[in-house]
Amino acid sequence: MVDIDNTIADYTNGLRDYIRECGHGEDECPCPEPTAYDFTLTGGWPFSGDAKSFRWWHTRAVADGLYSREEPYEGAAEALNQLHDAGWNVIMATSRADDRRGESQRWLHRNGFQFDGYYNGDKTLLTPDVLIDDRPVTLEAMAAKGVTVLHPDHAYCTAAPGRMFRRWAAVPLILGGVR
Ligand SMILES: [Mg+2]
């Protein structure tokens, strides 16, 4: 099971680009790499320290096509397709509650991801063999019930349980030993 935002799709940079397009320059809003999963806890973003403002920015960015515009991380599709070809059932999973136009699945197809299932909801309700995700509380909950967890190396999830990977190309190698 594979998460989308900040796991295979660059949400942070997508949101940063959107903020730039809205006229907030680098001097005023450096938009640094978030140090916590809750982006409002990192200074230098227009919504820092303000959860309501974050929701406003997120909602506006999504309405303006953020989910279609996020860039896939380098090597993500190749790595997951390699696993799919090796017999893994690849389930794309997101807790996006606001993808009302079905952009996520079109984005996956457009960017060449081959997958066997798509799930939108609370991932902790499922028990996959493996979860690849960036959200620390989800990684902790899944690791606690015996799921093998992997996560990227964003500053906010380096301390999360499971194996960390810097490049997607490493993921099939890590999982080669799991099955
Ligand atoms: Mg995510």
UniProtKB/TrEMBL annotation:
<comment type="similarity">
    <text>Belongs to the 5'(3')-deoxyribonucleotidase family.</text>
</comment>
<feature type="active site" description="Nucleophile">
    <location>
        <position position="3"/>
    </location>
</feature>
<dbReference type="GO" id="GO:0008253">
    <property type="term" value="F:5'-nucleotidase activity"/>
</dbReference>
<feature type="active site" description="Proton donor">
    <location>
        <position position="5"/>
    </location>
</feature>
<dbReference type="GO" id="GO:0009264">
    <property type="term" value="P:deoxyribonucleotide catabolic process"/>
</dbReference>
<dbReference type="InterPro" id="IPR036412">
    <property type="entry name" value="HAD-like_sf"/>
</dbReference>
<protein>
    <submittedName>
        <fullName>5' nucleotidase, deoxy (Pyrimidine), type C protein (NT5C)</fullName>
    </submittedName>
</protein>
<dbReference type="Pfam" id="PF06941">
    <property type="entry name" value="NT5C"/>
</dbReference>
<dbReference type="InterPro" id="IPR023214">
    <property type="entry name" value="HAD_sf"/>
</dbReference>
<dbReference type="InterPro" id="IPR010708">
    <property type="entry name" value="5'(3')-deoxyribonucleotidase"/>
</dbReference>
